[in-house]
Amino acid sequence: MAHVSRKRSRKAGLPPGTPMHIGEPRENAVTMTAFSYTASTLKETELSQSTDCQAVLNGLAGTHWIRVQGIHDVKPLEQLAAFYKIHPLVLEDIVNTEQRPKFEDYSDYIFVVLKQIGWQGTPPQLRIEQISLILGSHFVLSFQEHSDPIFQAVQKRLQNNKGPLRMRGVDYLIYAFVDAVVDHYFAVLEAVGDEIEELEEALISIPDQNCLHRLHRSKQDMIVLRKSIWPLREVISHLERGESSLIQDKTRVYFRDVHDHTVQIIETLETYRDMLSNMLDIYLTNLSLKLNETMKVMAMIATLFIPLTLIAGIYGMNFKHMPELEWEWGYPMVLLFMGLCAGGLMMYFRKKKWI
Question: Both ends of the chain: CA-CA distance in Å?
């Protein structure tokens, strides 16, 4: 039996700041992992429901990242929010998966919402997952709907101590997360571009109903992509040019690079959107051309038979005094005349390049 997503309407009448999961229900338990690190050390701790979360978090030293996978169970998230003194409205936004990408500065911490885009199923369909990030003075909290490995590369860099990740502050860590999400957009857009190229070739050669369905599905995907990516430009701008003391000037340079990538992604997105709009015109034009070709053939056939029908109609009249009817060569001569009329019309059509 298919799951029914929890709609925003269920929150009607509840006080502001009441956390309620909005989105597809999950059966897996919420998992939380703490990564506490310095330039030379890394400690990884799993936080289960049986773990004294308060004691573990109090014992974390240095910079740390709390990775939360699964936001459908609100209780462990409330405990985490209470420890880090996260505003109830922020927690409400975290468990509401219908948020648009946004940036909010709460002075003591920064709250960022991103959208991860991927493919699932056969045929592949877009899957949108909300990722929420909280940047504090010495910590980063990340919240994902699924146990998606999008941050796996960042985790390996922490574990293997490759690159400057451990030696820089938490603002560089959140940059690494944002950069991972944005880089994944390029892979998605490459797949979209390949689909558009195949669809364009199919529309030119065989514009059938299947092409129309694919075109409609691609236009729907483009709407989803624009809704998820367009607001990201504003988010990156705040991270790059904002006045928060939580982001160092040397890290803003990296956010500037991500901003350039975001602009490039948006430009590519708009190009694909224009191509899809033009492809609908191509589809309708091809249908009109095929209809015109069919009508032209039918018109030529009708034109060929009009004089033949006229001749057959004349000699089909039952008048008594028609000399040709008693002529020995009357029948073959009429057939010859009809053939000459048809041949003459065919030669005229070829001269006009209608056939």
Answer: 58
Spatial separation of the C-alpha atoms in residues 174 and 151, rounded to whole Å: 11
Parallel, antiparallel or unpaired: strands 139-144 and 42-47: unpaired
In 3D, which of 181, 65, 66, 174 has the Cα closest to residue 114?
Answer: 181
| Assigned token pair, 309 | 């029908």
To the nearest whole number, what is the mean pLDDT of the chain? 85
Q: Nearest CA to 67 among 162, 177, 181?
A: 177
Count Cβ atoms below 10 Å from residue 327 Cβ, excluding itself.
Answer: 11
Q: What's the 3-state SS for the chain?
A: CCCCCECHHHHCCCCCCCCCCEECCCCCCCEEEEEEECCCCEEEEEECCCCCHHHHHHCCCCEEEEEEECCCCHHHHHHHHHHCCCCHHHHHHHCECCCCCEEEECCCCEEEEEEEEEEECCCCEEEEEEEEEEECCCEEEEEECCCCHHHHHHHHHHHHCCCCCCCCCHHHHHHHHHHHHHHHHHHHHHHHHHHHHHHHHHHHHCCCHHHHHHHHHHHHHHHHHHHHHCCHHHHHHHHHHCCCCCCCHHHHHHHHHHHHHHHHHHHHHHHHHHHHHHHHHHHHHHHHHHHHHHHHHHHHHHHHHHHHHHHHHHCCCCCCCCHHHHCCCHHHHHHHHHHHHHHHHHHHHHHCCCC
Buried b (16+ CB within 10 A) or exposed e, 68-85: bbbbbebebbeebbeeee
For CA atoms 205, 211, 214, 219, the dihedral sign is positive
What pLDDT score does 118 carry? 85
Distance CA 246, CA 108 (A): 8
Please give the domain boundaries of the chain with CATH numbers for all domains: 8-285 (3.30.460.20), 292-351 (1.20.58.340)
193-243: pLDDT as tens digits: 998 888 888 887 777 778 888 888 888 889 989 999 999 999 999 999 888
- What mean pLDDT is predicted for residues 315-322? 73
